[in-house]
Amino acid sequence: MQTASSIRAPAGDLTSVALKAVNRILTEWAVPASKAALLCDMSDSTWKRARKPGFAGELTQDQMLRLSALIGIYKSLKLYFDDDLALSWIKLPNAGPLFGGSAPVDSLIEYGLPHFLSVRGYLDALRGGV
Q1: Residue-wise over 41-73: b if at least 16 C-beta within 10 A, else e?
Q2: pTM of the entire predicted model
């Protein structure tokens, strides 16, 4: 008998779902395609292809972690802030310790995957009161 933890979706299904979710998030945040590609660690042309249904490419572990972190960041923002701030936070200058006055989207692009994870943890801590 299979348990819930032993049932896994095929990697292609996970990639497809993650790309669809992140594309919707980045569209909702009004992040330009060129920055969206950088956030996902893709070229502009790969990001254009990846956004379309039926994308058959494979993503690296780094790219999948970025997508996962973006989904987590989005969720935390939606839970912590009102809708207007949740949608604009990613592009607003931020004096917080992780951002040094930069917009979070720019710091994510500049500092890469470790920063994605730090920002996600930062937002989770705000939400959880830690």
Answers
A1: bbeeebbeebbeeebeeebeeebbebbbbbbbb
A2: 0.87
